[in-house]
Amino acid sequence: MKVAEKKKVNKAVGVVVDPTYFNEIPLADIMEAIEGLGYLVVDEEHNRWSGFLCGREGQAMFDILSKETGKLDNSNLRLSWYTMASGRYEVLAYVA
After folding, report:
1. What span, in angstroms and rounded, lies between the C-alpha atoms of 94 and 6?
2. Cβ-based burial of 64 (10 A; exposed 0-12, middle 13-18, buried ≥19)
3. Considering the chain, what is the average pLDDT of its residues?
4. Which residues are CB-neighbours of 71 under 8 A, at least 6 positions away?
5. pLDDT for 57-78, tens place per residue?
6. What integer is the mean pLDDT of 19-48?
7. How many CB atoms lie within 10 A of CB 87?
8. Interacting residues of 26 by C-beta distance below 8 A, sequence separation 6+
């Protein structure tokens, strides 16, 4: 992913996680923001990622596929979460 594209994608992801604190991890919204710019968050078999995240805190890294070329991009979605005492999640996400 070129630097200019990565900035666009990170801006779109940033809009989703701007409040930072959530009742649930907004993974579907993050993935939709990325898909809207021509990329797809994928699993090991290059299918659209589906699943759930477990634990009070954690980190995950997801591959990104270009819809245009159908090839894996040189970027990953990086996501971390932490459950606060209030039960809400602190979520950080970006494409690196």
Report:
1. 9
2. buried
3. 94
4. 65
5. 999 999 999 998 888 878 999 9
6. 94
7. 8
8. 16, 17, 91
